[in-house]
Design goal:
Elements lengths: L10 H16 L17 H15 L6 H5 L3 H12 L3
């Protein structure tokens, strides 16, 4: 890989990325890939924070509705990977 090339996202990398984002936004360092956004205390503000970070990383408009429809990092990663592919 060249120094300026963006890393290629893989499903595992995307899951790890989303776990890190969820942990930071929800302030839960022990959050896992299977942690439910709602059960972890997520709300509309934190959902917008998550999609905002995804938009910065992927350079694409990630709808906040995806966080509500796919409330775990694992589920959301599958959709993000399918729709946006590379970080």
């Amino acid at each position: 890989m060249t120094p300026n090339a963006a890393p290629v996202a893989t499903p595992a990398v995307t899951v790890d990325l989303l776990v890190d984002i969820f942990r930071d936004v929800l302030r839960l360092p022990d959050l896992t890939a299977e942690t439910d956004f709602y059960e972890a205390g997520g709300d509309s503000l934190t959902a917008f924070q998550i999609t905002g970070r995804l938009q910065e990383i992927f350079g694409a408009d990630v709808p906040v509705s995806l966080v509500f429809a796919y409330p775990t990092p694992l589920e959301l990663a599958e959709v993000v990977e399918a729709d946006y592919g590379t970080a």
